[in-house]
Write a structure and sequence with these properties.
The longest helix has 13 residues. This protein has a single domain, classed as Electron Transport, Fmn-binding Protein, Chain A (Pnp Oxidase, Chain A). The model has no long low-confidence stretch (mean pLDDT about 90). Helix content is about 30%, strand content about 40%. β3 and β4 form a beta hairpin. Strands 1, 2, 3, 4, 5, 6, 7 and 8 form an eight-stranded antiparallel sheet that branches. By secondary structure, the protein is an alpha+beta fold. InterPro entries: CREG_beta-barrel (IPR055343), HutZ (IPR014419), Split_barrel_FMN-bd (IPR012349). This is Pyridoxamine 5'-phosphate oxidase. It holds the Pfam family CREG_beta-barrel.
């Protein structure tokens, strides 16, 4: 099923603009675990992370790369009900990404990470998006195929 262009554009905006997100990984026993992470986006629209091997979420993805990522829209004013802001849940997998471009894109979005980006226990990872679930207001809930999102970044 194809999502309407407006929904796909809103989802892509969330990916481009997000600086943080809630990363869902799976513990060894299969229980879900959610942590707060900093993110950036690659030119191809893949969420990009700088993760330490010391972090629980990194140990989880080493065993099972399936993840979800929740991004919150920035349009809700401070003090408003946070559930009035649009939000996007991305579902997919994650893999280490070793490229100068990934490093540059991430550090451009998060210059404060430059000091620890060189530590031996840190590495860059990118998410492959299989699908998205956008909640963009009351009664506006749209499932989006990952291919539709990727096409918007081409």
């Amino acid at each position: 099923m194809t999502a309407d262009h407006s929904a796909v554009s809103t989802a892509a905006r969330h990916i481009r603009e997000a600086k943080t997100g809630a990363l869902g990984t799976l513990l060894p026993g299969g229980q879900p675990c959610v942590t707060l992470v900093s993110i950036a986006a690659t030119q191809a629209g893949e969420p990009l992370f700088l993760l330490s091997t010391l972090a629980l979420h990194t140990r989880n993805i080493a065993a099972d790369p399936r993840i979800s990522l929740l991004l919150k829209g920035s349009e809700a004013a401070e003090g408003d009900d946070p559930l009035t802001a649009s939000r996007l849940t991305l579902i997919g997998s994650i893999a280490r990404m070793e490229s100068a471009e990934a490093r540059e894109q991430y550090l451009s979005a998060h210059p404060e990470a430059a000091d620890y980006a060189n530590f031996s226990d840190f590495a860059f990872y990118a998410m492959t998006i299989e699908r998205g679930h956008l909640v963009a207001g009351f009664g506006r809930i749209v499932d989006i195929d990952g291919g539709e999102l990727r096409a918007l970044f081409r």
